[in-house]
Amino acid sequence: MGTGEADMRSQISYGKGMYKSTDGGKTWTHIGLDDTRQIGRVLVDPQNPDTVFVAALGHAYGPNAERGVFRSTDGGRNWQKVLFKDENVGRLIWRSIPQNSKTIYATLWAARRPPWSITRRRMGGRRNLQVH
């Protein structure tokens, strides 16, 4: 489960990274990505539940390096940043293709939520993130 809100609006709460439950949600264990703050989506590989992709928007109010797409191949014990532009651009939307689950389309979003305004621009692109 990813924490934090990834919708840019006037009141945003931030999270503390990723959590995992192995008992149907009775207990949860923190599994990292603490400074991502806003996680927009979590994608678990249907063929291998140890492979997980996380889309992180990052800090809403300023730059940080924990933005982009992260991958774990060991159920969340370790994370690798697999898509990153810079400390001002995060990840918000992606789609996997049912016919080819190894390809993920991602849209990067340069967004900032300073007081009384919002700054944003979308950046497109296609990248095969290798879900194996």
Fill in the keyword field for this structure.
single chain, 132 residues, mainly beta, four-stranded antiparallel β-sheet, 0% helix, globular
In round numbers, the mean pLDDT is 80
Number of strands: 10
Distance between the termini: 21 Å
Helix content: under 10%
Portion in strands: 35-45%
What is the radius of gyration computed over CA atoms, rounded to a whole number of angstroms? 14 Å
Say what oligomer this is.
single chain
What is the H/E order? EEEEEEEEEE
Point out poorly predicted stretches: none
Please tell me about this protein's structure:
The chain is mainly β and 132 residues long. Helix content is 0%, strand content 42%. The strands form three sheets. Strands 3-4-5-6 form a four-stranded antiparallel β-sheet, with no helix packed on it. Strands 7, 8, 9 and 10 form a four-stranded antiparallel β-sheet that branches.
Q: Can you summarize this structure?
A:
With 132 residues, the protein is mainly beta.
Secondary structure layout:
Blueprint: E1 18-20, E2 29-32, E3 39-44, E4 52-56, E5 68-72, E6 80-83, E7 89-97, E8 100-112, E9 119-123, E10 126-127
Antiparallel strand pairs: 1-2, 3-4, 4-5, 5-6, 7-8, 8-9, 8-10
